[in-house]
Amino acid sequence: MPDTNFTDPLLHPPLKGLPLHSPPLRVSEVGAQGWNLLADDLPFPVALLKRDALAHNIAWMAERTRSWGVALAPHGKTTLSPQLFARQIAAGAWGISFGNVFQLAMGVAAGVRRAIIANQVIGAADLAALQRLLQAHADLRVLFLVDSQAQLAQIEAWAAKHPLVRPFELLLEIGFHGGRTGCRDEEEALAVARAVHASPAAQLAGIECYEGLWAQGESAADTDWVNTLMDRVDAVARQCVQEGLFAHDEVIVSAGGSAVFDLVAARLRPALGRPVRGVLRSGCYITHDHGTYTRMLQAMAPRLGCDCGDALRPALEVWALVQSCPEPGLAIVGAGKRDLSFDMGLPMPIARAAPGARQACAAPSGWRITGLNDQHAYLRWDAADPALAAQAPVVGERVGLGISHPCTTFDKWRWMPVVDDGYGVRDAISIHF
C-alpha cells in the first residue's frame, strides 16, 4: 500500500508559499480552503500549476504514446511529486523513471511498482537499499543502467558479500564520444553485455540511450542525430539477440528526453525477431514550459502534424510582487534563483495583476527579465517607448513568470497549489527533493 506520508503528506507553516496563519493541512485538504492567488490568500512568491493545462498534457502524451505503440515511463525527477506520479500512472504510464535510488525509494513509497533508474548504480549503500526494496515488494521491478565492466565488477563484489533476492536487471547504455555516460563503441558495448550475461549478480534486460541534451530544435539536424544514435542501438541489440545475451524473451529498448521525443519514439521498436517493449522516458511534458521546450515544440509540431497549442501547454508559473521601481525602465520583482529555473534561460513575464485586482491579463510584450539574484528579478522595459512607459508596473503589482526548464523550479519548492483559470486553488501537490 502507498505510504500516506508521501501520497497525502501534512503541510504545516512555516512553508514557502503556504499562508503562515494556515493550520496544518493534508495536501488533499488544500483545495477546500477557498484560496485564490489574486485575492492575496497566498504569500508571494508562489509557484503554481495550471489545472487544465496539466490535465491536457498528461492526456495528450498518454494518447500519443499509445498511438506510437510505445510505453511511457516519464522521468519522475522532473517533479518528484507522488500526486503527479499517480496521475501519470492512472493515464496509462507503464512506470516511472528516476535519477537515483533515493528518488526510487520515494516513488516506491508512493506506490510505483515499475521503474527505470536512468543512471548507473554502483555504491554499496545504494545496492543494498535497492535489494531491500526488492525484498519488501515482490511486485516491484527496477532496471538500471550499465556501461562498463568496472561498474559490473563493483556490483559483483557487493553481491558476493550479500544475498540477492533477485539479480539486478540492467539496461546496456549506448553513448557516444563527447557525450555523458554510455558505451562509446559497439565493441565495448558487446563486451559489457557479454559480461552481464555471464554474471550471477545481474541480468541483461534491454538496451538504452539518451539523446536529449544534444538536440538543437532544427528538424533536419535532430533527425540525423537521433537516427545515428538509434542505428547504433539497433546494431548492438541485434547482436545481443544473436548471441543470446538478453535474459528475457521481451527486450526493453528505452530512450527519450523531452526535446525530440517524437523522433526517438519512432525508433523504440526495432525488429529483433522477438518481443520488444519500447519505453519512452520524457518527463518535462507534464508541465511543459514557456522557454526551452516551447522552442523545441515549435520545431516538433510540423512533424507531429498539429499546432503547438493542440500539443503541450505551459502549466507551471511563478508569481511574485513588484517590490520596488527604483528608476525608469526597471522594476525589482521578489523572486529569484531560490524560487525558479535559470539554468536554461531566464524566466519570462507572461501575466500581470494590478494591486487589488481579481483578474490577470497578459504582460506587455516589451517586458523582459534581464537578471536574477537569490531572491530578486530585474524586470526591464524601454522607458523611452511611450506605450511601454504607460504600461509600467507599479509597486505591489503581481507578476506571473513563465519558466524555461521546469525541473529546476520544482526542486525549489515543497508543495505547489493547483489552480483554475481564475487562479482559484483547487488542489495541491507535494514535492520531495
Tell how many strands the DSSP assignment holds: 20
What structural class should be given to the helix and strand makeup?
alpha/beta
The rounded Rg comes to 23 Å
State the share of residues found in helices, binned by percent: 25-40%
Distance between the termini: 22 Å
Count of DSSP helices?
12
Shape: globular
Strand content: 15-25%
pLDDT under 50 segments (min length 5)?
none
Q: Mean of the pLDDT scores?
A: 95
Question: Largest sheet at a glance?
Answer: 10 strands, mixed
Overview of the molecule:
It is a single chain. This protein has 433 residues and is of the alpha/beta class. It has helices at residues 4-7, 51-68, 82-90, 101-109, 124-136, 149-161, 186-198, 219-242, 261-265, 292-304, 386-390, 407-410; strands at 10-11, 25-26, 46-50, 71-72, 96-98, 114-120, 141-146, 168-173, 202-208, 251-255, 276-280, 316-327, 330-333, 348-353, 361-362, 368-372, 377-380, 398-402, 415-419, 425-430. The strands form three sheets. Strands 3, 12, 13, 14, 15, 16, 17, 18, 19 and 20 form a ten-stranded mixed beta sheet that branches. The chain has an eight-stranded parallel beta sheet with strand order 4-11-10-9-8-7-6-5. Helix 4 (101-109) packs parallel to helix 5 (124-136) and helix 7 (186-198) packs across helix 8. The longest helix is centred in the middle third of the chain and has 24 residues, at 219-242. The chain is globular. It starts with a helix and ends with a strand. The mean pLDDT is 95.
How does the SSE layout of this entry go?
Layout: H1 4-7, E1 10-11, E2 25-26, E3 46-50, H2 51-68, E4 71-72, H3 82-90, E5 96-98, H4 101-109, E6 114-120, H5 124-136, E7 141-146, H6 149-161, E8 168-173, H7 186-198, E9 202-208, H8 219-242, E10 251-255, H9 261-265, E11 276-280, H10 292-304, E12 316-327, E13 330-333, E14 348-353, E15 361-362, E16 368-372, E17 377-380, H11 386-390, E18 398-402, H12 407-410, E19 415-419, E20 425-430
Parallel strand pairs: 3-19, 4-11, 5-6, 6-7, 7-8, 8-9, 9-10, 10-11
Antiparallel strand pairs: 1-2, 3-12, 12-13, 12-18, 13-17, 14-15, 14-18, 16-17, 19-20
Helix pairs in contact: 4-5, 7-8
